[in-house]
Fold this sequence. Notes:
- By secondary structure, the protein is α/β, with parallel strands linked by helices.
- It has a single domain (about 5-140), classed as YqgF/RNase H-like domain (Nucleotidyltransferase, domain 5), CATH 3.30.420.140.
- Helices cover about 45% and strands about 25% of the residues.
- The protein is built from four helices and five strands, in the order E-E-E-H-E-H-E-H-H.
- The protein has a five-stranded mixed β-sheet, sandwiched between helices.
- Strand 4 (about 55-60), helix 2 (about 70-90) and strand 5 (about 90-95) form a beta-alpha-beta unit.
- Helix 3 packs across helix 4.
- The protein is globular.
- The relative contact order is 0.22.
Amino acid sequence: MSGKVFLCFDHGQKRIGIAIGQSITATATALETLACKNGNPDWQEISRLIKQWQPSDFVVGLPLTMAGKRQEATESAERFARQLQGRYRLPVHLADERLSSREARHQLQDSYNIDAVAAQLILESWLRDRALQASDATMRKL
């Protein structure tokens, strides 16, 4: 996973928050929030961001209940992930997004750009988890 660039999406029916991050430092930056048109992603803007940032992989936030159960939004996020993979032919990873919007609201103290900051938090959490898994695997080999 070293040296990879990831574009992360916090998918919603009205808005999609987008963040960019990389695996070397396991950090991410909120980019922007795109409005959906009639519940559909703005594929032209998504294509523009992909061309600009040239990610190696995508990460899509997977909305689950606090108990880890699926909900209505889970299917929508999974459908969006399949569409991303089908359109752009890049690997797509699903990441647990529980509490990301709440934490983004707490950090921002208002609703401006909450979705992009939520995407940033999702991506940073996912990158940290992957780094810990890689570290654990290395330790088991020793």
